[in-house]
Specification:
371 residues, binds ligand AOF, 5-stranded mixed sheet, Dihydrofolate Reductase, subunit A, binds zinc ion, 9-stranded mixed sheet, single chain, Cytidine Deaminase, domain 2, alpha/beta, 11 helices
Length: 371
């Protein structure tokens, strides 16, 4: 038997949610712990892959599998239990039917189909509802889902690996490897929780990267998105991996190449800029809208200085994940092409969220204020 205090249960529900963070997309990663009035854990669970059961149903099944009654029990959940019929039935109804007496939820579900209806339905059935404990962690874990529900666009996180003097490659383009293994493995963990990885055609042509998750375990590969204005992605590029969805955004129409790429399993989307003079480039803001419609929650950007610069200049990046190696490179490639500023007041202002030593490198998470 496992006895704990309530704040521990909130934390344990969050740990359950973390188990779902690489597999739940496009659903939020949610965890649930069901406890008896005496503080015994009766069941636990987390969101399964899309179309599968939600956290609450998994926890109820876990309790039943152990022969535990949950009559009058408390359910700790990291998100408001759903009230709608989506791909699965409403968790509220399952909790009520099982006789749960109290629900402690970290956050309301921003999904307009739920948004408070879950809490209302539970209260109407006489279930005590408490909202708030663990809200910060729950939101961070599902920052992409919240972004897509509220803004209709993904949360954009740009990953950069550089030397301490801010260079991502030698002047001749050599970049393998500036950071060390711990940083590279950590980078894969961030890829794994993203719905999709984004890169540009420059990186595809220069590095022929796979941009998949290899250094950590994952139940699914994130989709790959390529900004490829002139449709130059080679058909034999290593990024074509069996079973992974590839979305290519183009500006120039090229029906022959489009057909070839689609025969390789890619989806080609024609999205040229609408303002005069931008017709040759992909409309990046419109691309994010389109990715939101395609249920992309977190978008993990690993691109070169050109695409990085365009995304930053257009204000489309929410957060930077920067790995810094303790070395100077001297002349080399910049993290992002931003061009010269005429005043410091024009700088892209950020706030540091965290700084960690991943020996021998540093990991910095910096966020646009207010996002
Ligand atoms: C919960 N518990 O573990 C999760 C929830 O299509 P469906 O039926 O899978 O529903 C998806 C929606 O359910 C998703 O958009 C979000 O609002 C909510 N996610 N709800 O009660 C869970 N993952
Ligand atoms: Zn649910």
């Amino acid at each position: 038997m496992n006895f704990s205090v309530p704040s521990d249960f909130v934390h344990q529900a969050h740990l359950q949610a973390q188990h779902a963070s690489r597999g739940a997309s496009p659903n939020p990663a949610v965890g649930c712990i069901i406890t008896s009035p005496t503080g015994q854990i009766l069941g636990q669970g987390h969101t399964q892959k899309v179309g599968g059961p939600h956290a609450e149903v998994m926890a109820l099944r876990d309790a039943a599998a152990h022969g535990h009654s949950v009559e009058g029990a408390t359910a700790y959940v990291t998100l408001e239990p759903c009230s709608h019929h989506g791909r699965t039935g409403p968790c509220c109804d399952a909790l009520i039917a099982a006789g749960i007496g109290k629900v402690v939820a970290s956050l309301a579900d921003p999904n307009p189909l739920v948004a408070g209806n879950g809490f209302a339905r539970l209260r109407a059935a006489g279930v005590v509802v408490e909202v708030g404990p663990g809200a910060e962690e729950a939101r961070e874990l599902n920052i992409g889902f919240f972004s897509r529900m509220v803004r209709k666009t993904p949360w954009v996180r740009m990953k950069i690996a550089a030397s301490l003097d801010g260079k991502t490659a030698l002047a001749d383009g050599t970049s393998q490897w500036i950071t060390s293994e711990a940083a590279r493995t950590d980078g894969h963990a961030w890829r794994a929780r993203a719905s999709a990885v984004l890169t540009g055609i420059g990186t595809v042509l220069e590095d022929d990267p796979r941009l998949d998750v290899r250094l950590v375990d994952t139940p699914r590969q994130p989709h790959l998105v390529i900004v490829d204005s002139q449709l130059q992605t080679p058909l034999d590029a290593r990024l074509f991996i069996a079973g992974r969805a590839v979305f290519i955004y183009a500006a120039a129409p090229n029906d022959a190449k489009k057909s070839e790429l689609e025969a390789h399993g890619a989806t080609v989307i024609h999205l040229p800029g609408r303002a005069p003079g931008t017709e040759n480039k992909v409309d990046l803001a419109a691309m994010l809208q389109d990715l939101g419609r395609r249920e992309i929650n977190e978008l993990h950007v690993e691109a070169g200085h050109k695409l990085n610069g365009s995304l930053i200049r257009e204000g489309l990046v929410d957060e930077f994940l920067v790995y810094l190696a303790p070395k100077f490179i001297g002349q080399g490639l910049d993290m992002a092409n931003l061009g010269p500023l005429s005043a410091l007041s024009q700088a892209v202002a950020l706030e540091f969220k965290s700084v960690d030593l991943l020996p021998p490198d540093l990991r910095i998470l910096a966020r646009v204020p207010g996002r």
